[in-house]
Each structure stands twice: as C-alpha cells, then as structure tokens.
Amino acid sequence: MYLKRWITAFVAIPFLVLLIGSGGAFMFAVVIGVLCLIALWEFFRIVPGKIESSNPFCFKLLAFIMGPAIIWAAYMNSFKSVLGIIALNLIVSALISLPKFKSDESVSEIVFKQVLSVIYIPLLLSYLVLIRNGDDGISWIFFLLIMVFLGDTGAFYAGSYLGRHKLCPAVSPNKTIEGSVGGLAVNVCAGALFKIFFFPLFPWGLSILFFLSIGVAGQVGDLFESELKRVSKIKDSGTLLPGHGGILDRIDALLFAAPAAYFFKEYIL
After folding, report:
1. In terms of residue numbers, what domain contains 22?
2. What would the DSSP string read from start to end of 236-259?
C-alpha cells in the first residue's frame, strides 16, 4: 500500500508542478472544475441515506451544473457570484422537491444533501482558484499543497509507527492522537522553512498560528469525509488513485485547508 501511495504521488507531482507553474490561471481553473465534477460524483456515491430514492437524477444534474459555475465565478474573481450561485442552487433544489414531497417525504433529505454537496465541494474548491488568482498566487498554491501533503504524510507515518491512542475511533479507527500531533509538527516545521525562505516578513506568532490552522483544518476535513464513508460503510470514495482511493479521498483535507489559507492570506498575514 505504501508503494502504491508513493508511485501515485510521484506520477501526480510533475503534472501538478507543470499545471501550477506554467499552465496559467485559466487552465488551473479548468482542472479544478474537472476535479469538482469527479468529487461530486464520488460524493453522491458515498453520501449516506436514501439518496437513491425519489429519482434524484435532477438533483445530481443540478449539482453538476452549479459546481463548475461556482468555479468559473471564482475564476472571474466574483465571490458575490459564487454566493449567488449557491443561493440559486438552494432555491432550485427546493423547487424541484415540492412536487415530489407528497409521494416521498425523503426528498427533503435529498435536498439537504444536494445543497451540502455544492457547499462541501465546489465552494471549498473555489478558494483554490481565488488563491491562485491573488497576489503571489502560484507560490501560495504550491505552499498550500505542500503543507497539506506533508501534514497528511506526517500524520500517516507518525500514526503508523507511534500511534497508541485513538483520535476519533467512531469516525476513523486507525487515526491516532500521536498521528495528529505528528502531522501538525510537520506542518509547523515545513511552514517555518517556507517562512524563512519565501515569507520572511511575516511575524512568527501569526505564522505558526497559520501553519497550525492549516493542519487542523486539513485533519478536520479528513475526518469529515471519513464520517461520510463510515455511515455508508464505504472504505474509499473511488479507485481512481491507487493507494489513495478516489479524488475526494485525496482532496478531503485540502477542501478544508483552502478556506483557512485564503482567510489568513487576505485578512491576517
């Protein structure tokens, strides 16, 4: 399993470097849009409950339309449009549900999960596009991806070799407190190196808080996806990435870390 994880990483890393460094903002947004669609498909596969009742095709189709629209709005640097699309998605979902409610009351549950899918995946992914379009966007995207990747790797190996105490056994039995602390320690160390070489003017106190915030947000994102899979009794969201599972398995931490990074970048640091 370890070998598959590293082989997948070594194949993906050159593509990511080329995309972020030379692909341009538009191509970056296009790839994020594609990832959004794949992650949405995986979400509807693992989402718990009676999602397959009430003929939910129209709800899924709406998410597949609104998702790329949100990414496009972020590419146009219009966060107001992003919020407007999310509101429109809720309104249309509610409208679709009304004639179905009489025959199947579970349609309300489907609406909630459809709205969650659009907030959970396209909205959170849109922060990557916003970061990429901002000042020093390329550097910030590289920084964020490396921080999330190293934090996840640090937690994985620290938990594998040092883990003794369960972190959240009801959600993810294999995750440990030692692994969590190890991941955060790697986040702080990696972040400190970036600060020294690339962001020397940032104050140390806020920088460490920033590194920890990314680490904690990433771990919460990981656990949240594990919670969805645990309820549905599914191990992986997909099989697209050998050793990692699906796209959603790989970006679960990034989904939560991206808004945290954007908030610090724009309003604190």
Report:
1. 1-134
2. -S-SSBTTTBSHHHHHHHHHHHHH
